[in-house]
Design a protein that fits this description.
The complex is a heterodimer.
Chain A: E1 2-6, E2 9-11, E3 33-35, H1 37-53, E4 57-63, H2 69-78, E5 82-86, H3 96-107, E6 114-118, H4 129-137, E7 141-151, E8 156-162, E9 166-173, E10 176-180, H5 192-198, E11 203-206, H6 208-211, E12 225-231, E13 240-242, H7 246-259
Parallel strand pairs in A: 1-4, 1-6, 4-5, 5-11, 6-10, 7-10
Antiparallel strand pairs in A: 2-3, 7-8, 8-9
Chain B: E1 3-7, H1 18-31, E2 38-45, H2 49-55, E3 61-66, H3 75-90, E4 94-98, H4 101-114, E5 117-122, E6 124-126, E7 133-138, E8 143-149, E9 154-158, E10 173-176, E11 190-195, E12 208-212, H5 222-232, E13 235-238, H6 240-244, E14 265-269, H7 275-281, E15 286-291, E16 304-307, H8 310-325
Parallel strand pairs in B: 1-2, 1-4, 2-3, 3-10, 4-9, 5-9, 12-13, 12-14, 14-15, 15-16
Antiparallel strand pairs in B: 6-7, 7-8
Classes of the chains: A alpha/beta, B alpha/beta.
Amino acid sequence: MRIVVLTKPVPDPASGGERLGPDGRLDRANSPAVVNGNDEYVLEKALKLVEAAGEGEVVLLTMAPANAPETMRKALAMGATSGVLVTDPAIEGSDTVATTRILAAALKTLEFDLVFAGVDTSDGTSGLVAPGVAVLTGLPYLSYAATIEPDTNARTVRVRRITADGYDVLEAPLPALISGTQALGEPRYPSLKGIMAARSKEITTIGLSDLGIDPATVGLAGATTKVVGSQPPEPRAATRVVREAPDEAARQVVALLAERRII
Amino acid sequence: MAGIWVHGEIAGDGSLAKLSTEVATLARAIAADTGGAEVVGIVIGSKPSTSADELARFVPKVLTVTEPTTADHAAGMIVAQRLAALIEAHQPDIVMTGAGPEGRDLAGALSALTGWGVLANATGLTGSPDGPVATHSVFGGKLLTESALSVGKGIVTVRPNSVTAEPADSAGTVEDATASGDLAQPTVPVVERLPAESKAASIDDARIIVAGGRGVGGPDGFGLIEELAAALGGAVGATRAAVDSGWIPYSQQIGQTGKIVKPQLYLAMGISGAIQHKVGMQTASTIVAVNRDPDAPIADFADMIVIGDLVEVGNAILAELRERKS
């Protein structure tokens, strides 16, 4: 069982340090990075599947600035076997179209039974890259997974896809690409042993030329969208703090709801 | 003439997804400012007619494509391929869809098939002669950005509750269309459809949400949250901590790895308001919090915070609501 997990370093949402660069895009160099939350869930699932199979590898595939190995080590410390980093000065400012093309091209250089991705990333939250990569690689696409059950003998995989009404149970032959959610289960914390081991795990770096992609078609130069403005949101009105006893506090809450015609 | 297409999403029961009516309303609003663009609804599915009729209340013209394979296969990839063929034949400039799971799957696949860029997760949209300009909420709501397409054509995904859906003055027409070509991408069969474990009301479109966090203390504590939601006619939401503890299903989770909601009222019970939760609910019209801790982050962005025990205050609110009704 060989699983490639698409992992993205994202600015730590808890840091509050995210800012825009002069081009109106996220300034990644100056934002403290963590592994994207949804990617950790699929990574955890990949590790569990390989552990249960008793053999196999979990390989990280990341497209990011050259400092990404710092963040990738955190995912390697959880137990991933190795990593592949696609990095190139020209990819800075890439939109979802370019990101999709680059990741699909990189995937074509790897061998795998399954590809996992988080359903979205906390920085862009577009949820567009996984279905796009499926199109460009021609892999069966199973999305919004709550469970993932491969059958290595039959060479198939079953996924419970979360829908508005419940679940659709999807089945596809391997290899396949699956986007997963938090419902897959809580990610493990890296052990001290895992952290030590991660230091010597291999991260292979490849550039656009290795993938045969023209630098002019990606990054800011090739972007299909552009940021044309930004402003802080309208501030919310000051908070009313209610410290009265429960009965009186409840009266004030219900009065506010009535005043705003909510009830 | 430029064309703005609205993808009509078919819900599980065959009706039109509510989000599509909002997308259609927004499309009409920007059409006049986008060079007098024609707004056309597109419904693709095994039985598109019910959804198409509903969508026609919002747009002047709806095209339907009957695609039998979506009945028992994952629909997004199939619909994207049919839509790409229609785009090739009719040359619209803009395709709009919802930013829910179905719309995202569709938009991502369609973008890869067409090479078109995507203005993702628009919370607002304005028209201009150069094309639409979308507003997005980024960095957990700290900043609003505006973005446009670099080239004339592209896709827009629209967040739920960005506008109030309003039907057009007169209903539009529904016509059958043909989308030719093979389905080159693998089709993924649906081998079984399972109902949700919980019958909890959906938080996606809820006008009122009563949500519980770690402070609720356990699954039993959610009994009070449910009672409050019932008394207010709302749905029950939760933080990741409450979901991870197994007190309530993931379908009710609000925040970064859950859902993003925009109700009229968000009643937050025992929720500290950490950034991961805040990103999912901060655009609620009215936020009322009940929390023991006056220094909880939610005190900075709620309209009202009651400092106190959530069981005592929650029960008092219940009593007050019942008294008001009687």
